[in-house]
Amino acid sequence: MQKITLLIHCKDQKGIIAAVTNYIACIDGNIVYLDQHVDEDEDVFFMRIECEFKNPKNDLKALEADFEQQLAAPFEMTWQLFTQEQKPKMAIFVSKYDHCLYDVLGRYRANELPLEISVIISNHRDLEPVAQQFGIPFYHVPFTKEIKVKGEEQQLEILHKYEIDFIVLARYMQIITPNLIARYKNRIINIHHSFLPAFPGAKPYHSAFKRGVKIIGATSHYVTEELDEGPIIEQDIARVSHSHSIEDFITKGRDVERMVLARAIKLHAEHKTMVYNNKTVVFL
Amino acid sequence: MQKITLLIHCKDQKGIIAAVTNYIACIDGNIVYLDQHVDEDEDVFFMRIECEFKNPKNDLKALEADFEQQLAAPFEMTWQLFTQEQKPKMAIFVSKYDHCLYDVLGRYRANELPLEISVIISNHRDLEPVAQQFGIPFYHVPFTKEIKVKGEEQQLEILHKYEIDFIVLARYMQIITPNLIARYKNRIINIHHSFLPAFPGAKPYHSAFKRGVKIIGATSHYVTEELDEGPIIEQDIARVSHSHSIEDFITKGRDVERMVLARAIKLHAEHKTMVYNNKTVVFL
Amino acid sequence: MQKITLLIHCKDQKGIIAAVTNYIACIDGNIVYLDQHVDEDEDVFFMRIECEFKNPKNDLKALEADFEQQLAAPFEMTWQLFTQEQKPKMAIFVSKYDHCLYDVLGRYRANELPLEISVIISNHRDLEPVAQQFGIPFYHVPFTKEIKVKGEEQQLEILHKYEIDFIVLARYMQIITPNLIARYKNRIINIHHSFLPAFPGAKPYHSAFKRGVKIIGATSHYVTEELDEGPIIEQDIARVSHSHSIEDFITKGRDVERMVLARAIKLHAEHKTMVYNNKTVVFL
Amino acid sequence: MQKITLLIHCKDQKGIIAAVTNYIACIDGNIVYLDQHVDEDEDVFFMRIECEFKNPKNDLKALEADFEQQLAAPFEMTWQLFTQEQKPKMAIFVSKYDHCLYDVLGRYRANELPLEISVIISNHRDLEPVAQQFGIPFYHVPFTKEIKVKGEEQQLEILHKYEIDFIVLARYMQIITPNLIARYKNRIINIHHSFLPAFPGAKPYHSAFKRGVKIIGATSHYVTEELDEGPIIEQDIARVSHSHSIEDFITKGRDVERMVLARAIKLHAEHKTMVYNNKTVVFL
């Protein structure tokens, strides 16, 4: 049994669902999941389909070419096709905070993530032992404003060497260069430690404490050139009270951060997110 | 612009989605929402479609007959078709607790519920003033084990008179007769004040307090002959602690009850629930 | 059995708890609840005590004078004493949105709020029938920038006439004058339809939709001269997704608004909130 | 600065709080946290105090003897005193599931847990590499009904050798013997994968799926001889829908399990839990 996932978006048009589902029926596929969304303001159609084939399509190239000709071209679709066997390759960028890293690696070893963690890149050496402990290649790539050209060059080289599909910033405390963002458009996931758009930028827990909020949160989003302004993938919150200190906010926040980041990684790796107009469509 | 909602379930078969979406395209409908589900254990297919017609179908009977012949018969579908204008008629059964009643009536007057509240039936006279205050017909139908045949008869008469589509038990403290359940199969919604299957039956807050739980809940479900065993529509919870008394449990629980009941009523009235195998499919 | 609640705050000093609890023991009171908080940054001490007296203190004035002399003066306390019988008198300000109003009035009639709703004031006549339906005096006080002096005057007169203790803005869409804020310092509760500090000001659901957030929220806070910047009493959130329109955000948000407002009203009426440094201490 | 935590419970009596807080003031302690609870049904008083001493009490034995004589004896208190430096020693029991183990060890290495993980005991060898990876001693102690006397003997020997203070069952799939339970009364924490009392015993996710619930949960509790009937420390839930398979329930449930277990471990290690009458008092 072969399982294929199809992501499609295009201008909304009458008959798209019929056309695509017909096509899948004609090539002997069985649809096990279909979700669609119409953005009525933008008049855009989104669809995610999972289908199964009893007789595996061994020549995927031919299938893709046929789909392009029969459907994608006439409807002017932007589309992607994934097979379940292709596990995306992920790189992790970290600095010194280790809680998200431990959480992601623990989940990886517990077989909860449908992906391959190929490499860990850090601007510090502090977390190298964690990488070693979990048997993941680790690269120390210093990065500051002064050496960002060289830093970016090294990063790109490593990402290329490991054929990385997407990048996770697990509390990485340096900016990502526009060049890297462009190369990995909608494929760099950051975790920010506030419920955006509240408290963007540095030290959000301190700001939240000062404001006297009763809930704190975390936000995972795709990285764009505007800091903390990219398309939001997932958010969650925790309740706090007057009895909590800034340190308590940070401790409680860590739990939210790791949960929200883990969910975003999983959604991305399972091809359940689509980006349009600086927003995400997340098919659960 | 005419809006039609279609609910379908049948044995899972290849090509159903294509057939139905084709049909809608052929009759000039535009699908604005489609959600489907396959119960793989039971091999059953469920679908909910909302579609819009620029040229309203004035002869719905003809449309229904055509759909039956073209699609429902060949695929052996169980199906229902609703137009947006048809607001379902709802009866409320209450006893003496008034918090759910106030909540439902307040939402109704605030135009949050796509339905018509036609009548309130109670085994006590206590809440008659509330019905009057909101201008809803009220009937006092005494009901005890001893007079349940007569009670049921009166209930059915009133339900018939007001052409009731579905019934909401807003903390109604008497049993519903098998006859009434059969007449309104999957159309009687109860709110039970625990997260079922924990604490079925009477006094769940007392049992929860005794057990020392840290969360309490409420459950809305369709009524079946087995007490508190019907298909669950919606559940939610609230956190409690050692500092809460049984009275606090009850107070906090009331908030959960009214929220969970209101959501279930709305889901049912919007034709977003389907029942199969004592479970619900809820298309959000 | 007489029940008294005591709220205290002062500079943190060694021995305060002992002194106060000793005092209560000496006057034959039994402490049934004690909660305290030290703001270590500001070095301020807060305490809330509920105590019971088998022999009621009929001369409260004498008790207060004694407490002032024995404890409040030496420790330089700011303090308040409440008996359970004194129900605070509340005024509701509304404009045209009715969902919070229905919710508060429904809870009031269902005996969930330990207070008296004395009057409803509105800058429109739309909700007068709701006030009548629930038997609460209603005053139409037009209010715009141009007539704000006259509007304020009328508001103050009505508040004075009904001896109002605190004011609830149940989605009141006009500004509150500095004069009124000063008279009811930390006694005017607003409900804002976002999780502040995200989306202050007008049309927060529209902004939240545009930003593509995955959670929306509501915030109840005491009104200060800075719009949406006052001390936060309570917040809560609801999950949203790409499939929700702005209208869906608004509908889901209404549920959060009414819940958060109801909780804030209850906390205030039970004397469980204290304000310091633009933050609240909320003793649950 | 020395920090001491005091846990007290006894029959409710007038003047206890005053007596204890007086005592602390007299020995030059500053109370930074005080929480108390009166179980009115059982007439029992609970208190947790954190206090700081600028001049450390080096002779703790003397302090304890003095407290016993001055306060504990006259009020017939059950009480415990902890200093912040004493980190409790924890043993982990596991079988084959690794997600809770990875989570606890990750948090431990990320310095989130105020305790020492001294040893891991398992009835299988599968997770030995995880223990090695994190540098924690691992013991394989086979355990079945047939060899439970020998198994228990080995377990007790290891627990004794490492001077274990409390035990965490991180999805340990064997029963704990009555003898072990008695030795570690209210010091063995289990994580059960349902919101108890719903779905006790084996395969709760399967039962939850069959019942068609809309929320699943997890419960951490102290182990007693009655399976899944011990005092509940913490619970939490996750929402599920018709679209989730049993496998999805299990995956989502793992997140709840690890969060609920981690919270319970932290609460216990920080001496924030007290047990009475098969319920917990949890001072947050």
Automatic annotation (TrEMBL), chains A, B, C, D:
Q: Which reaction does it catalyse?
A: (6R)-10-formyltetrahydrofolate + H2O = (6S)-5,6,7,8-tetrahydrofolate + formate + H(+)
> Quick check: keyword Hydrolase in the entry?
yes
EC number(s) for this protein? Answer: 3.5.1.10
Supply the SUPFAM superfamilies for this chain. ACT-like (SSF55021), Formyltransferase (SSF53328)
Q: In which pathway does it act?
A: Purine metabolism; IMP biosynthesis via de novo pathway; formate from 10-formyl-5,6,7,8-tetrahydrofolate: step 1/1
Provide the ACT domain boundaries: 5-85
* The keyword Metal-binding belongs to this UniProt entry's keyword annotation: no
> What keywords would UniProt list here?
Hydrolase, One-carbon metabolism, Purine biosynthesis
Q: Which residues form the active site?
A: D228
**Which GO molecular function terms does the record list?**
formyltetrahydrofolate deformylase activity
Which major enzyme category is it? Answer: hydrolase
The record describes the protein's role as: Catalyzes the hydrolysis of 10-formyltetrahydrofolate (formyl-FH4) to formate and tetrahydrofolate (FH4).
Task: Spell out the HAMAP family in the cross-references.
Answer: PurU (MF_01927)
Name the protein family: Belongs to the PurU family.
Q: How is this protein named in the record?
A: Formyltetrahydrofolate deformylase
Gene encoding this polypeptide? purU
